[in-house]
Design brief:
Strand order of the largest sheet: 3-2-1-4-6-5-7
Number of strands: 7
Largest sheet: 7 strands, mixed
CATH topology of the largest domain: Spore Coat Polysaccharide Biosynthesis Protein SpsA, Chain A
Shape: elongated
CATH class of the largest domain: Alpha Beta
CATH architecture of the largest domain: Alpha-Beta Complex
Bound molecules: uridine-5'-diphosphate, magnesium ion
Order of helices and strands: HEHEHEHEHEHEHHEHHH
Number of domains: 2
Length: 342
């Protein structure tokens, strides 16, 4: 019995090793294969929408890509019958694939895994809840062919509750100002990419909201086109009100890891110098009053405020310097995005 288990184990081991060596043999996809369009669909408990969605994706892709397409569903740990629905699709059309997580990791993780698997020259992402319209895919690709690397959908007429539209407007405005990209809608599920973009993107946590920012600061040409947007037909949204607070925190992460990644002192130091300077000015004012005999410093709480600002500013500058030491030690790992080499 024990022997049996042992031989079974070594058999499993041999099989896994064989599979690993096979995988190594397969060329890494570079987007140049015979697949023209990969559609990546992250989904979490969307059993009611899947079939309808698949039908409309299929009809569009048959038209514009013949049989040179693939659809990759990334099942983000659904607990409903989503996986079974996708299996049915796969049995009918082998161009439908699925990667299924054992648990719910979040939309960003689902996208990242879908990106890694996408072989197409063009990669399209869209939500599974029928809010995004596959009929827009040709428009997005047309725009890519005008010389862009990423085209983001813009839900110009948005079909969502007002409680979501208003905060989202604010979110987009702030992101646009802070990131320096003039887009109206950063977080539309419907986007089109050249393959090279998804090879370089690294989305994790909830960073999917900032994909256009990440790509833009990596040197890619990013734009948007208006797209049709439908109300959610089945099920409910998977993101609550907390999305906006988290979203703004993530914006800080995005800025520090893109724009300021190689010069952290410019971020922390700039704010630090401003704050310290303000503190210094406050205390200078008090000092002059004291010199002129107008006041005792003991009864001026403003003094403490000034000192606090100076200390806080100095701390920010130190944090920036620590960041600089960090980046210098990692300098050889900086990954430059190269367009061409001759
Ligand atoms: N989604 C996912 N994992 C999650 C949450 C959402 O894959 O943890 C998918 C979801 O199934 C849908 C897409 O991400 O296909 C967008 O989600 P949702 O429609 O809930 O977002 P909203 O439209 O409300 O912004
Ligand atoms: Mg939705």
């Amino acid at each position: 019995m024990k022997e049996n288990a042992k031989s079974k184990l070594s058999e499993n081991y041999r099989e896994a090793k064989h599979r690993a060596s096979q995988q190594k043999l397969q060329p890494k996809s570079s987007g140049s294969g015979d697949i023209l369009i990969s559609v990546v669909v992250p989904l979490y408990n969307e059993e009611q929408s899947i079939k309808e969605l698949a039908n409309s994706i299929e009809s569009v892709l048959n038209r514009i890509a013949k049989n040179r397409y693939e659809v990759i569903f990334v099942d983000d740990g659904s607990t409903d019958a989503s996986l079974e629905k996708i299996k049915e699709l796969h049995n009918k059309n082998q161009r439908f694939h699925c990667i299924s997580f054992r648990r719910n990791y979040g939309k960003s993780s689902a996208l990242q895994v879908g990106f890694a698997a996408a072989k197409g020259k063009y990669v399209i992402t869209m939500d599974a809840d029928l809010q995004d319209d596959p009929e827009e895919i040709p428009n997005l690709i047309k725009k890519l062919n005008e010389g862009y690397d990423l085209v983001s959908g813009w839900k110009k007429k948005r079909n969502d509750p007002i409680t979501k539209i208003l905060p989202s407007k604010l979110f987009n405005l702030v992101t646009s100002i802070v990131s320096g990209i003039r887009l109206h809608d950063f977080n539309c599920g419907l986007k089109a990419y050249r393959n090279v973009v998804v090879r370089r993107l690294k989305v994790y946590g909830e960073m999917h909201r900032y994909i256009p920012v990440l790509a833009y600061w990596d040197g890619f040409r990013v734009t948007e086109v208006p797209v049709r947007h439908h109300p959610r037909k089945y099920g409910k949204t998977k993101f609550g009100a907390g999305r906006f607070v988290k979203g703004f925190l993530d914006l800080l992460t995005v800025m520090i890891t893109t724009r300021f990644m190689q010069r952290p002192l410019h971020f922390f130091g700039f704010i630090g110098v401003l704050i310290s300077f303000f503190g210094f000015a406050v205390n200078l004012y008090l000092f002059i009053e004291w010199l002129l005999g107008k006041t005792y410093l003991t009864n001026r709480p403003l003094l403490l405020f000034g000192i606090t600002l100076i200390i806080f500013g100095a701390q920010l500058i130190s944090i920036g310097l620590l960041g600089e030491m960090n980046i210098k030690s990692l300098a050889e790992r900086i990954n430059y995005n190269i367009r061409e080499k001759f």
